[in-house]
Amino acid sequence: MFIVLNLLLEADFKSYWNNFKSNKIYWLVVALFVLHLLGILWSENTDEALHSFKQKLPLITIPTILVAKPLKKAWQIDLVLLAFMIMLVIISILNFGYYQQWFGPKSYNDIRGMSIFGSHIRFGLLISMGGAICLYCLRRHRKAIIPCLALLIWFSFYTIYSQVISGVITFGAVVGAYLIYQLWEYRKIFAKLFIVSSGIFIIITLVWLLTPLTFDASNYQNLPEFTAEGNRYEHGVGYISSETGEPVLTYLCEEELEREWEKRSKTDYLGTTVSGNPISHTLIRFLASKRLHRDAVGMESLTDQDIKDIEQGFTSVNHSGLMARMHSIRFELNNADNPNGHSLLQRIEYWKAGSHIAKKNWLIGVGTGDAQLAFDSYYDKHNSCLEQKHRKRAHNQFLTFLLTFGVFGLIIFLLLLYSFFRFNLKHKQLLGVLFFLIATLSFFIEDTLDTQTGVTFFSLFLGVFLTAQIKLEDKLKSSE
Q1: 3-state helix, strand, coil in the chain (%, to 5)
Q2: Pick from 68, 5, 63, 66: which is nearest to 31 by CA?
Q3: Residue 106: what pLDDT?
Q4: pLDDT at residue number 108
Q5: What predicted TM-score, i.e. pTM, was given to this entire model?
Q6: How many CB atoms lie within 10 A of CB 297?
Q7: Domain containing 228: what range?
Q8: Domain count, the chain
């Protein structure tokens, strides 16, 4: 509002208009915003449509301001980036400190609680942008190499520790793209080798995730019938542990588990963990991850810290860092009978629903604000197995534009992204390209622009890099 007031007081409207006319990408932003306005006309839920329209205001206001009067001087751009980085560092430290209980009143029951001011997923994108800025500064501001490297290491650690897969993907893509850029300038053969090796690593990771977990059934045909105490075992082979590749429900005696658990925990065996999942299921999976029998003998091997971890909702002894999330996804994919509570399986259900809605409304979509109504109708009509609290929208920005505004809305959105990427590539704006990479990758697994944080993040850096800025290769005198 202050910047708009400043522009009005300056009143250089002719210059503003000339800047608008000469910037073709800006008119795609305008077209996208007008589409949200027109979409209200065929919306059934007017209140939600107006809320969605209001939420999208940064999409037009911030780029309009920055196109009317672009940031063309190095210190102006650096000031914006510096302000962003200062707040990012402060908030990331607060998030981590609160989660570790260094300070603050709340005990978080889930790694997703490590974002006290908003969505952990959206904050993961901001962290990725912080990493991109660190890499940008390593090249442009040589005197700041040490603090930039320190921040890059901190952001890398934060990304891995937070277990936000979208954050890991975008951060990894940023670092990978930057290394390719650097190697390409030095020797193209090294860049090509890095691309090939990265591709191989990604393929191996996907194969590891997607390959079904199997076991030799003959090894489980003659298992002992009784525990050391003489109680009868149950031997089920339905669920497989990602960590061990062995069935979770073998060597199971819930009678002994319940008795021993009640001795060591104040939480009832039939109760729930802090994160809301059944204690019994969490305990069984945790024991299986440690290759312990699910009986009294297995319970004796658990440490006091293990008991606390189970009470918090951890299903595996490997519950911190990126591999914990990877094992969680692997378990979801191999035990996909119930999607509720599993983010990836829920997304698959959202994508199925969104594709169905988009197919029925491919021309003009369901209108601004009616996406959730369309999804609710689909879930009810098809007797979705998703619980009410998990019946959400597409979690894919491309699919959301298609089902909301039809094929023309998707085309405008794709044209905007393509034009922005081409513009920054042409002007050798590496930081603009890295931002494009972060935003676009997030669009595949999130409705980034349907949240206030997401749309503001996108609008800010879209506006900053919407006009020709100082090229990355230029040596700033101020940095020498």
Answers
A1: 70, 0, 30
A2: 63
A3: 66
A4: 63
A5: 0.83
A6: 16
A7: 217-300
A8: 2
